[in-house]
Amino acid sequence: MVDSGCPSITALKPFVRAADIVNRGEPCGTGVNRNNACTREWRIHTSRAFWVHQFPSLFNAQGGTTNNTEFVRQCYRTYLWRDPDASGLQHWVNDLNQYGNPASYEGVNHLIDAFLLSAEFRRRFGPS
Q1: CA 7 to chain centre
Q2: Of 128, 107, 125, nearest to 48 (Cα)?
Q3: pTM as predicted
């Protein structure tokens, strides 16, 4: 197995575990729907805090990326614990490029949410 450069558990404390980002109940107290706007906002905010702390060089002053391809690679390593395959990397880079290159703050949020809600992430860490 290739070391994908995933952050260690020690590096993730004081942050919420990745699985908790998906599994956590509604932070607003309105139920446990993982897809409503309040949960989505919390999920992105928590994950973004981790990203900016762990990988500051990937972000510009406006909160967008400094390098779309490297941000996508790091999403694979962080959320899926593996290196991207060529077609997956190209798919997500193309998707992120719709938000500019470098991508905007909104593009970063979009990609964070897409990985957290991806089937692969949910099979590995989330509820079935």
Answers
A1: 13
A2: 107
A3: 0.71
